[in-house]
Amino acid sequence: MTELPRFHADDLGDPEGIAAAADTVGTVGAAVVDGMLDDVTLDRLHHELDPWIDTTPTGRDGFTGTRTRRTGALIARAPTVRDLVMDPRVLGPARHLLSPFTRTLQLHLTQVITIEPGQGTQPLHRDRLAWGGFVPREVEPQFNTIWALTDFTAENGATRVVPGSPAWDVERRATDDEKAQATMPAGSVLLYSGSVIHGGGENRSDANRIGLNLTYCLGWLRTEENQYLSCPPEIASTLDPDLQELLGYTMGDYALGYYSDPLADPEDRGSDIRPPERALGRKPRDGVSVEHLVGVDDG
Ligand SMILES: O=C(O)CCC(=O)C(=O)O
After folding, report:
1. At 234, which helix (H) or strand (E)?
2. Which residues contact 51 (CB under 8 A, 6 or more apart)?
3. What per-residue confidence (pLDDT) applies to 286?
4. pTM of the model
5. Would you say the C-alpha torsion 114, 154, 148, 221 has a positive or negative sign?
6. Of 98, 97, 84, which is closest to residue 25 (Cα–Cα)?
7. Looking at ligand 1, which residue's alpha carbon is closest to its atom 1?
8. Residue 238: exposed, middle, or buried by beta-carbon count in 10 A (0-12, 13-18, 19+)?
9. What is the atom index within ligand 1 of the atom nearest the CA of 198?
10. What is the pLDDT, as a whole number, of residue 268?
């Protein structure tokens, strides 16, 4: 068993700290940040999430976990989750790690993962395989967080992580000595990349382990949770514009993500190339320039 690098929330208050955390996630694959949430915020999160968790069925197989509950649509359901998603201490490192590969970020998934007593280990995996292995190795597609809403212990299923595995050949398997466990008190967050090998731990305790999994990906990839359905325009239109854009209600690039309204009045429908913000009743804040698309001089 080995250890993960650790930061404190106060380290992420400036650009140097943000860069250091992001670089660690890029190379090691993961880091724990302690002291992110106070008790009042933790209580609010439990109050907002518990009713949804209690009515969520358990998973269907060994990967999703037959004694694990996965509860989504958290932007729509839990207002405090909106603050966590936009927290500059995680969004900063996410942008730092992913911006070499994209102009925009998207919210990839919001899911509270409740591992109940008796749940065995989840198979180790890399999250980037969500895209079927088609994203080239040199591109990091994803930045992830799991916020500890209960203590994460070796007994209750703290996330297992293999430090250094982003650089490994895909066939290489970790020995027990090469694995770490993200043990952390409630209020800490585990940051990890889409390329690191990891998985949920076994819960040998008599209480639930609750982790809030909020993940981000490159703006030109399909997201794991379909945010337009989990947070439809009626709800998204009430949110902060920065969050709306992270949900995908903005152009991902000059030509990426427009829509046409098939129900609009044919006589008065305006442009058929509409930016997503129109569905929320507002105009885009910034346009994306066409300049970078015009790379070839056609004379
Ligand atoms: O719950 C955890 O600790 C990890 C979950 C995970 O890696 C997954 O569901 O893909």
Report:
1. helix 233-236
2. none
3. 77
4. 0.96
5. negative
6. 97
7. 200
8. exposed
9. 7
10. 87
